[in-house]
Amino acid sequence: FLTLPAGPRSAGAAEALTAVSGDAGSTWLNPSALARQGWPEASAAHHVWIAGMGYQTLSYAQPVPRLGGAAAVHVLSLSKSGIPSYDVSGVRTGDVSVWRGSAGLA
């Protein structure tokens, strides 16, 4: 799931954001761009992917002029519920849900 876009701006630009600064999603795609972050910014998105998978992103960047850049955090999660579960003999036992997540600081 780590190859999915990290936010709405990167999804719209086909993840071609390595030269763009001023986006809270820079923590994921280009942390060095945070050096030019001049204002606080937050970004949140929920995507519904193939077969009902949910993909959520949350990013926040805060300028820290004293350090000559910004501090930022991001959280990504991928979830899917309603996956049929079977025992060893092939009898359906119900449904299961899965969740994967990632977080980072820059």
Q: What best-fitting shape do the alpha-carbon axes yield? A: elongated
**Helix/strand order:** HHEEEE
N→C terminal distance: 20 Å
| Portion of residues within helices | under 10%
Cα-atom radius of gyration: 18 Å
Mean pLDDT: 81
Q: Name the strands of the widest sheet in spatial order.
A: 1-2-3-4
Low-confidence stretches: none
Number of strands: 4
Computed structural class: mainly beta
Strand content: over 45%
Number of helices: 2
In terms of quaternary structure, the protein is single chain
Largest sheet, if any?
4 strands, antiparallel
What do you see in this structure?
By secondary structure, the chain is mainly beta. It has helices spanning 8-12, 26-29, and strands at 41-48, 54-64, 69-86, 92-105. The chain has a four-stranded antiparallel β-sheet with strand order 1-2-3-4. The longest helix has 5 residues, at 8-12. It is elongated, with a radius of gyration of 18 Å. The two termini are 20 Å apart.
Task: Quickly list its features.
single chain; 106 residues; mainly beta; 4-stranded antiparallel sheet; 4 strands; elongated
What is the gist of this entry?
By secondary structure, the protein is mainly beta. The radius of gyration is 18 Å and the shape is elongated. A hairpin with a 5-residue loop joins strand 1 and strand 2.
